[in-house]
Amino acid sequence: MQKIIEASNLRVSFGKTQVLKNVSMTLHKDKITAIIGPSGCGKSTFLRCLNRMNDMYDNFKLEGAISFKGDNVYAKETDVIEMRRRIGMVFQKPNPFPSSIYENVAFGLRIQNINDKKILDEVVERSLKKAALWDEVKDRLGNSALRLSGGQQQRLCIARTIAVESEVILFDEPCSALDPTSTRKIEDLILELKKHYTIIIVTHNMHQAKRISDFTGFFHLGELVEFGETKKIFEDAKEKLTRDYVRGDFG
Amino acid sequence: MKKSFLKKLSRNEMNDRIFSVVGLLATLLGVGVFLVLLADVAMDGLKRLNWSFLTSFPSRNPFDAGILSAWVGTVWLMAVTGAIAIPLGIMAGIYLEEYGKRNKLAGFIEVNIANLAGIPSIIYGLLGLGLFVRFLDLGRSVLAGGATLALLILPIIILATREALRAVPVSLREASFALGATKWQTLKYQILPAAFPGILTGIILAMSRAIGESAPLIMIGALAYIAFLPQQLSDPFTALPIQIFNWVSRPQHEFAVNAAAGILVLLFITLMMNGLAIWLRYRFEKKVRW
Ligand SMILES: Nc1ncnc2c1ncn2[C@@H]1O[C@H](COP(=O)(O)OP(=O)(O)O)[C@@H](O)[C@H]1O
Ligand SMILES: [Mg+2]
Question: How many domains does chain B have?
Fold first, then answer.
């Protein structure tokens, strides 16, 4: 097992509020890591630290370190743009661009000045296939992405990330706005993607975490209470807090 | 217990009803006054509204007088005003919203721009007179007039731009950043296109404000009697509101009729611009939904 991302002693605050307290976690290549915990415990914040999405906020402050394949993510000389391309992200609410299905997938390439139609066609098709969306949209690539269903939109967002050849995909509760059928499809897709991508998924759904993840981290009040193999966390956790949470006693 | 609950509900309902009646009356009053005014002006002015009215220069004889130099002057003014205020306003709006640091200075600028939008237009006329006509020695030219009106509507465009940018959902920004887009790429390809209808609406409303302004133009000394058309930016000019103002202040009734006809033309242009703004907003709102 190869480690790909390593967070050590992360302390994160927004203005005066401290959100993460001394979090350390090692993420393994081509595995699925689930992050669980009650609302507001810092799951999204942790996830967004990994590809520096929190940089958007003026009052964001981080101490500690995150390394991606041995490089310090928060070093001054880090190319944030390149790093975000390699660590993609899929959000809670599907957020396709208000353009065509085709352009949604092509956007990540266009901003790298790749505009050759042949290359774009190829990448769009390959990415949509990998995201299990191709058959549903291949006849209407020019249609607005906003007209797709929620589940399709979410798979489009996954395709968009795959198109720029990310190595890691961060999922922040990707199914919380979807119906059970669409949820199942996304879960199957994530399991399939695991072959080539490292996946970190924040989820509220215990069954989902149990079903698809290899590792699970349990957050509570900004601390990583416990981290380990999913089976262990769900069946034989060391901490009482973890046992209570996965049993559904609170949260 | 149950009884008092019911009582309270019906009281709220009562308030609801009273409010909706008062609101309706207020609306009707506003619309009604406007319609009466419009009818009054139309009754006077419609009969004077013909081709030669639009293509004649002003004259001492009210039946020969037309608004050619006035509407051409207004077109010139709007072109100059737009050319200055639109790019400056949009750029300032983008800077303040997207790049400006959130600090005390930014807060100070923000409050001031909001205040500037509320300053009486005659003050801008004074500023234009001092700054453009005298200090920069532009004279009573189209350029001075356009620049003065540009100052007047600059805060409106800045505010509209910022509001339109702010209305773009954060999720769109995040989507773009997460794919490795730079801030500028995100702005250019996603945020600005999404904000465009809002910005455009703001621009049109600002321009339709500028087109009806007379006080600042009178202040900088725009002439009413111009028997030629401006050929360049340094030429003197007149404009529709100035011409109307001039005719209204003449004693002869025939000039009042001319003024009414001029008002109809100005109203028509303003309503068309507002209509365009509403149509654009409606169209884009339908097209883009998040
Ligand atoms: N940009 C921000 N500014 C201020 N506080 C924030 C910001 N983002 C998150 N927080 C706070 O950090 C805490 C953790 O939020 P989050 O990571 O979104 O929790 P979770 O995803 O586990 O529900 C919350 O209390 C939230 O209010
Ligand atoms: Mg969250």
Answer: 1
The domain of B156 spans: 51-287
In chain B, % helix, strand, coil (3-state, to 5) comes to 75, 0, 20
B7 domain-assigned: no
CATH number, position B135 = 1.10.3720.10
Q: Which of A17, A53, A220, A225 has the most ligand 1 atoms within 8 A of CB, as the residue to mutate? A: A17
Rounded percentage of chain B residues whose pLDDT exceeds 70: 95
The pTM (predicted TM-score) of the whole model is 0.84
CA-based radius of gyration for chain A: 18
pLDDT bracket for residue A66 (50, 70, 90) = very high
Coil, strand or helix at B256: helix
| B290 reaches A (C-beta below 8 A) | yes
| Closest-CA residue of chain B to A59 | B102
Helices then strands (H, E): number in chain B? 12, 0
In a domain, B2, yes or no: no
Cα end-to-end distance, chain A, whole Å: 32
The per-residue DSSP string of A186-209 comes to: HHHHHHHHTTT-EEEEE-S-HHHH
**Domain ranges within chain A, ordered by starting residue:** 3-247
Q: Which residue, judged by its Cα, is nearest atom 16 of ligand 1?
A: A42
pLDDT band for position B254 (cuts 50, 70, 90): confident
The CATH-assigned architecture of domain A3-247 is 3-Layer(aba) Sandwich (3.40)
Between chain A and chain B, how many beta carbons pairs sit less than 8 Å apart?
Answer: 67
B78 domain-assigned: yes
Question: What's the ipTM?
Answer: 0.92
What's chain A's average pLDDT?
94
B180: nearest CB among A81, A91, A98: A81
Minimal Cα distance from B183: which residue of A? A81
